[in-house]
Design goal:
The chain is of the alpha/beta class. It has a domain at 111-187. The chain is built from 10 helices and 12 strands.
Length: 286
Amino acid sequence: MRDNPVYLSAGAAAGTDAGDDVPPPGPDVVIDLHRVTVMRSGNALLDDLTWRVTAAERWVVLGPNGAGKTTLLNLAAARLHPTTGVVHVLGERVGRVDLSELRTRIGLTTALLAERIPADERVRDVVLTAAWSVVGRWREQYDELDEARANALLGQLGVAALADRRYGTLSEGERKRVQIARALMTDPELLLLDEPAAGLDLGGREDLVARLAELAHDADSPALVLVTHHVEEIPPGFTHALLLREGGIVAQGPITETITGEHLSKTFGVPLVVDRVGDRFTARAA
């Protein structure tokens, strides 16, 4: 059961025709945004933004509330069309591809998706139903390979013992790990994580950071993009950073060159000092 093909509407198409001369990205590029602007009610949520992610890279996106992080993630997830500019995801140009097919190649965790998961759903089924792109198991049939993959992912995220529990009985940290297992169920080529550590206590955050670090260091993992407000939540193994403020880019590039006191001060609008210990960052007022 899949949605009907979704293509760019005639109204949105007018915003991207100007990009007909933009060549498609190379085969190793998973996200390519070229001079993208997103307008809503006369306001620019993103303004003339250009950004490229390759398959081997692990990106963190930081910025204050209203910076455009969620809008950017929705573009990368092929769930939003730009007003102007060109978006390629996994080699496909958004607006000229069956979006329902493209989205099966992308793993995504968001607060909105998490809210749709039934509280009485078995944890194993929360992960398993991603194979059919549904939330809440009904009459779908799954084969042994699907069952085995769901169990393996729960084990990889450290929640295998919870497979027969009801989702609503889990702690917030356990739910976050189950959501990531679900996002990995379809063996995606791109994994997008929207503030996965939000709401976690210190122990839960550190456990999740360690799990994400394992993913980041695994050469077989998909390209990763992690959205957060806090540099303390950046897992080791992440290679690049993009800093946003008011819909524009403050800085982007290799993580050690981008996560600096100067750049973060401009991003958050307050003087900040950044410290680095090993592969972890902390920030404090200057």
